[in-house]
Write a structure and sequence with these properties.
The chain is of the alpha/beta class. It contains twelve helices and twelve strands. Helices cover 39% and strands 16% of the residues.
Length: 343
């Protein structure tokens, strides 16, 4: 019988021998050294505050699916714009909850120069002219079916929709919008909007393209906020991007830049950090992310239930956008973060 021979024990190496004296914890040992080598920082200059507006005066309604977020009337939006100015938030993005009586198959109310979104823009600019105003020209808040375009025989018609959103963009610029941000994902919309703005004398109004807006499950609370949740017929997969595709997202962004977009946006945000990184690396253009309603709701609801530290999760999520390459973030957390950063 062979006698068992235990394996020879290796001579223990020291940690310095194992690492070659490269101890990566050295710069993590103290708060001052961690701050000294921090690669990315979140500042108030990174924040865009999306708000929801509704008809009426001096009214505020909490959105059940978005704890802490409210629909407000245009007069209160003006007050919130003054608050944004005090906090140093650079811009506000507005989204309307349009009365159902004003919605139709084509979203024609978007062409009313005195509609809710345009009245809100004028109110904000009168109260806080130093705050940028970003408006969306998608038709979904204005249609009776909840789609971002004109619906004919069960099909979202591209070219007719493009003509309408381009005309609406001019009205929004006339009302004082600084940036037009079309989210409808129709082919050719960026070029058509640029042509119409330039022809109307609004060459200085910028375009933030929702270049890569994905068909996502994270939009549910937003649809409640603008009143389209129960209206939507079918889905939006014929015009929003498949969330399995990243090369297609790059092609969409490239096309929008060729048509005249001044900046790019990725929507949603956290599930698409790889897309943000690709677009920033590929094009070196101002790149933004929209931390959408579902992302916000998950953090806010979990925090209310005591499952996570809401403030820490909020800040960590926003810093992730900066790490991925974002120049700015649309987030419902904007006023809270701005107050925290202000100290």
């Amino acid at each position: 019988m062979n006698k068992f021979t235990p394996p020879r024990q290796a001579t223990a190496r020291t940690v310095d021998e194992i690492t070659g004296s490269r101890r990566l914890r050295r710069m993590r040992k103290a708060d001052w050294s961690r701050r000294l080598v921090q690669e990315n920082r979140l500042t108030v200059d990174d924040l865009i505050w999306p708000i929801f507006v509704m008809e009426g005066e001096n009214r505020r309604e909490e959105i059940a699916a978005m704890p802490g977020v409210f629909r407000i009337t245009a007069d209160l939006a003006a007050i919130e714009a003054e608050r944004a100015a005090r906090l140093g938030i650079p811009a506000i993005a507005t989204f309307p909850n349009v009365d159902i009586q004003r919605r139709d198959e084509t979203g024609s109310h978007i062409l009313d120069a005195d509609n809710l979104i345009n009245r809100t823009t004028r109110a904000i600019k009168a109260a806080a002219p130093e705050v940028g105003v970003i408006t969306d020209v998608a038709l979904d808040p204005f249609t009776s079916h909840g789609h971002d375009g004109i619906l004919r025989d069960g099909i979202i018609v591209n070219d007719e929709t493009v003509a309408q959103v381009a005309a609406a963009a001019v009205l929004q610029a006339q009302a004082g919008a600084d940036i037009i941000a079309p989210s409808d994902m129709m082919d050719g919309r960026i070029g058509a909007i640029r042509d119409q703005l330039d022809a109307a004398g609004y060459q200085d109004v910028a375009i933030m393209s929702y270049a890569t807006k994905f068909a996502s499950a994270f939009y549910g609370p937003y649809r409640e906020a603008i009143g389209t949740q129960g209206l939507l017929k079918g889905d939006k997969k014929t015009y929003y991007l498949d969330h399995a595709n990243s090369d297609e997202a790059v092609r969409e962004a490239e096309q929008d830049l060729a048509e005249g977009a001044d900046m790019l946006m990725v929507k949603p945000g956290l599930p698409y950090l790889d897309i943000i990184c690709r677009l920033k690396d590929e094009f070196r253009m101002p790149t933004f992310a929209y931390q959408v309603s579902g992302e916000y709701a998950m953090i806010a609801a979990a925090a209310r239930n005591g499952w996570i530290d809401g403030d820490k999760a909020m800040l960590e999520s926003l810093l992730a956008f900066k790490r991925a390459g974002c120049d700015g973030i649309l987030t419902y957390f904007a006023p809270k973060v701005a107050e925290m950063l202000k100290g």
